[in-house]
Amino acid sequence: MARSSETTPVSTFRVVAPLVLAAFAYATAQTTIVPVVPYVQQTTGSSPSQVAWLVTGFFVSSAGLTVLAGRLGDLFGRKRVLCAVLAVFVAGAALAAVGDSLAPIVAGRVVMGAAGGVFPLAYSILGAQLPRGRAALGMGMISAMFGVGGALGLPLGGLLASSFGHRGLFGATAAVALLALLAVACLVPADRGTRGGGVDWLGSILLSVALGGPLVAVSRAEEWGWDGPWTLGLLAGGTVAFALLLVVENRVAQPLVDLAVLRQRDVWAANLVTFLVSAGQGTMFFLIPQAVQLPESSGAGLGVGVDRAGLFLLPTALLSTVAGPVTGRLVARFGTRPPLFFGAAAGGCGLALLAAGGGQPELLVLGGAVVGLSGGVIYTALPALLADAVPLDQLGGANGVNTIVRHVSMATVAQLAAAVLVLGTPRGAPYPQEWAFTLSYTVSAALSVLSLVPIGMLRSRRAAETAPAAEPAAPSTPHIG
Known about the structure:
By secondary structure, the protein is an all-alpha fold. The chain is built from 20 helices and no strands. It has two domains: 388 residues, Growth Hormone, Chain: A; 56 residues.
């Protein structure tokens, strides 16, 4: 794991607590919007396709700017950039809170998504400020916020929106983010950038198009048609942008994404594990609230309201919260591979329980809890793995890419699961059949088990520790012509 650049001991609480609060603020914002979407549509007189941008816009801006935030932290100081993205997040939430029409509310959500760099910056700060054991513990607590925020966001969003409308929801979000900003500014020690150079703005634009185009296409494909011109055009545009990104990043002296780092075995294996495991996490977070709100007569639902639907994910949040810090201690002692093996296997088992559960609430809760345990373990071990594998001056960018892989996987599988539900709804029937849920859970379980393959390809901790320390890569000579 990257060594601290500080010469004086740093209190673990002083570093970890503000970062956990920042991670919680961002993670809850990903799901608190879900129960608010119908309310905003009704109050603003918007169409379903227009109001969908409350969700889509957030993820698109997050996908495009998360890696950039991590890279800027490497260049100009991680605390400074983290404070900047938190300030952007507060401004976006405030804009959405005061908006009385759809445009400013969507604009506020887009601005909020631009603060997706919270997680990679927090991981990098921990890797730079704290020794291995304490950094791994902190990474566990921050990683747990993914599950906690995702699970608590649904009931919190429903309660706030039902009592105070969208203004109360976004106002509360801005207040929590502002508190996190003040905590980071006052408590987290300052750091300096580890290398000079400029910002690869062309790479940033290409990355935004390469990720944003396909995300928009997948999220709107049910409305436009999977073979519609807009869907195919955005997918094709994203593919072209990705190809150009590879060319540009191989040629510039200071790339946004160092492809040599991404080609390292532990790094690409970590990203592949992230994609496969996150598919199960995204499927669970999307389908459980959908299923429990269906009427019991559908054969797959429990007939609960939106305010109670999120409560079925509370055990998920609790196990994820406990698993993170415990895994951090295990990583510090045994390395990353044993926890990753356990987490992947647990994810497969939890999703298999969900596939077998049907409309049984006990199996839904148990399966979701086991998947939450898996996420808490996996998402704690992966940042520690990257901190072991990547030089300090590349750590923010590497964590940014890994965070984006997670977001893209979860967003994509959620939309694919939605497509399966549509296919599983007979013509003229109001609800999907149970097999549609079972199929999505089964495929996700298989992907989680498949992640055991790249985990087995990771270097052992001993190998990682005895290998020569990686030095910051010297700027490559730009190719000409």
